[in-house]
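ok here's Adenosylhomocysteine nucleosidase, seq below lol
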Amino acid sequence: MLILFHYYFLFRIFMNLKKLSLFSLAIGCGIALIGCSNTINKKTLNSTILQHSNFLSDSTPRIAIIAAFGQEADLLLASLKNKKEYLIQGKKFTTGLLENKTVVITLSGISMTNAAMTTQLLADHFNSQKIIFSGIAGSLNPDYHVGDVVIVKSWIAPNEIFYANNTQIPSACGSAGDISCLGLKLDQNIPAYNTHFFRQTNVINSINYQNIALTTQIGSKAIPVAYGEMKTDFTVDPIMLSTATLIQKTTQPSLETICTDKNNCYQPKIIIGERGVSSGSFLANSSYRDYLHQQFKGDCVDMETAAVAQVAYANNIPFIAFRSLSDLAGADHDPNVGAFFSSGVAQRNAAKVTIAFIKAL
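and the structure came out like this:
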């Protein structure tokens, strides 16, 4: 009898423990499910945030303004309200209000590579709705004057070349002009400069990435070698250009007058030009200047803008540039160039046009 009671007692304990275990298991599963639910919600929430805010530093829609030199940016920063500074990879970006528009202002640094890196940082870290480049440039057009502000319709980089051994049209892939097997394409609408043959630039963005931009012939098959687009130059945004045209007459009288002496003064103009040229080379050669003006239809030359235009295009951001002429490129015989360059007149004129444009947007 004692043994039976002992087994019964053990059985009751076992059943109670089993019930407790099942209850604990149910509670545990409930907690686990709640935990899983929270985890899922957090992941869903994070996913939603990432989909709607891809900007690393500031998601406020802004007009991005880039300048090459500190003096150009300082003139714009002096008019900026509600300033906030960001230091990104050692570069300073300043947000605020300019003519009651939300903007972000930064320096590109000199050179095509610095300009490209800066523009991509703007695209990654700020909700850049438009990009404006404000700065100085050398003139390619001898009809333009120092102090004029040139707003061109497109930008091109002539450093994209095929550098040949002779002046014959390259035929690296068989027929004359065919360099497709190298993943490259000549633009034969632009005449060569000695043995320098201009070639197009391959650009991929979120719109064109599935397009076949270039094929090469292997046997009887056309094999894709590049996707996106092959481009000669990068046009500025037509709506922004239209706005710039509207402020042309009203802003021109406010540009700073250029005087060589008391009796010889010039009132700078705002000029809607055809094409701007950018390269990593500093242009101090009059022969090459003439080539860029005559064959490229270039009006001004600098070392940054075409790179900014390309990165803006790759990020689907509307772009325009205002370049105030500081000298005639290649005219190193003029002793006044250095003095004028350091006077800041060109920089101030570019800033005036930029501010007027921002106000008109």
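fwiw The longest helix spans residues 2-52. kinda neat tbh
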